[in-house]
Specification:
about 25% strand, alpha+beta, about 200 residues, four-stranded antiparallel beta sheet, elongated
């Protein structure tokens, strides 16, 4: 009698093992699907961040070029230290280039203003899909994401009465002196000293 009861218990546990195995397999497949989606989403966000930063950096490059050409030539050369002076002519092309390098396409780009920090909001879509899974439709599903990058001026200064006077810039504690009457390009620091380009929080 005891032996038969033991055999019966083993017979009853077999369906439980099958049921638990099925649950574990389903959980593993579900985790794989979520991992696929997370990978696509992370890739999309990285592409959006890169595209937005590229657009803002293009404006910063324009500001630096304008500043270099205006000092000692244009009495209003200090205007080029204002990020709002950038025209944004090359911003979209820069964003599209960086998106393409990250296997994505720019869906939209628009100007962004946050106080004295202008920038761009860029929305992208991945060129790749989430991938095939047990969930129908994922093989054609692309990830989208957006990001905002802004340009912040780092320098404080007083506008002189005479545009030919020496100007002292205070760029986050770093003093920079520019003499419009005796200016050479080496007098200007790197663009990152004058302007910061960063993702908006």
């Amino acid at each position: 009698m005891t032996a038969r009861r033991h055999f019966g218990d083993r017979g009853q546990t077999l369906p439980i093992y099958i049921w638990l195995t099925a649950i574990l397999l389903f959980a593993a497949v579900a985790l794989f699907v979520f991992a696929q989606a997370a990978f696509a989403r992370n890739g999309a966000q990285s592409a959006a961040d890169a595209a937005a930063l590229a657009a803002a950096q293009e404006d910063r490059d324009e500001l630096m070029e304008g500043l270099e050409g205006a000092i000692g030539v244009d009495d209003n050369w200090l205007d080029w230290l204002d990020p709002n002076e950038a025209t944004g002519v090359g911003a979209q092309a820069a964003a599209e280039q960086l998106a393409a390098q990250n296997d994505a396409t720019v869906l939209a780009i628009e100007e962004w203003a946050e106080g004295d920090s202008p920038g761009y909001r860029v929305e992208i879509e991945t060129n790749y899909t989430v991938g095939e899974s047990i969930i129908p439709g994922t093989e054609d599903m692309q990830a989208t994401a957006d990001a905002v990058a802004i340009i912040k001026p780092r320098c404080d200064f007083e506008v002189p009465d005479d545009p030919t006077d020496i100007v002292e810039l205070n760029c986050d504690g770093e003093p920079i002196e520019i003499d419009p009457e005796d200016f050479v390009l080496d007098d200007l620091p790197d663009a990152s000293v004058l302007f910061s380009v960063q993702l908006a929080e």
